[in-house]
Amino acid sequence: MKVDFAPLNIPLRRRIQTIAVLQWVFSFLMLAQFCLAGFIILALSDWWVLAVLYAGWLWLDFDTPVSGGRRSQWTRNWRIWHHFRDYFPLSLVKTTDLDPRHNYIFGFHPHGVLVAGAFGNFCTEATGFSALFPGLKPHLLMLPFWFRVPLFRDYIMTGGLVSSCKNSLSYLLSRPEGGHVAVLAIGGAPEALDARPGALKLQLLKRKGFIKLALKHGAHLVPVFSFGENELFDQVPNPSGSSLRSLQERLQCIMGVSLPLFHARGVFQYSFGLMPYRKSIHTIVGEPISVVQAPSPSSEDIDVLHGKYMEALSELFEKNKHLYGVPDDRHISFI
User: Fold this and answer.
1) pTM metric for this prediction
2) How confident is the model at residue 53 (pLDDT cuts 50, 70, 90)?
3) Residue 126 near residue 81, CB atoms below 8 Å
4) Pairing assessment for the beta strands 201-202 and 333-334 based on DSSP bridges
């Protein structure tokens, strides 16, 4: 295989952008393992008292990931996130104002491989979320497993990440003061297995849990579509029914996370590696769907609102696709 190396005279700003994304990829794929290993080494060293004290802190702080987390505006405003934004580049587009007196569920689509658009737009201030939506606090929901990893949990919470369990979502949506946004990648792990350039299949037909919680708490629904999210990585072919797909689905059932075999480019060459392609990501925040609170919603209530949400998401995609290079004959499909 011919390796296409990057030229030596690349501007410094692009080198810095690459470093910013490299640390993000490392954090996503390896930082949890390093934090766990560091904690174990600390526990077995002469400094074991520090590990015991931290374990005590974990016990006292156990419920924080399901109680709104512990965000840090300082972390969210790190300069490195601006370089991360400019690598792709990444943009956040508002279609209407959102009333901060309400709580919201932002349904983020598609999941992509590493949800780069959701992270950059809602876990940092690089694209100006707080300026675009004053009075709102975004919380990206992440699998509960990651909040059990020492040190790593504290780091990810500073960006506004919280547990994706039912109690966590209910906590955010039930805040009487309003202004909380639960950002949920609806397709989840299964959708990541189909994330590849050109893919427009969304796991949504059977996903109604978020609809039920929106009704129970009267939280408004906002469809969000991230154009370019699936263009960042290629995947090893894994069609439904293949041996690889069956193994991935089995591991997903056991571990709770999907393991897409993705690849794109490297740091110093463009032929292979785990760095994402430099493809533009445009995340469009649609208009809210007003929800009337129903403490005990019926199946019919859930189905009706679910249908409205799918229709609103389709309209959002169709209205904006021509702006971001999607051909007129391409449409999203729900599975």
Assistant:
1) 0.95
2) very high
3) yes
4) parallel
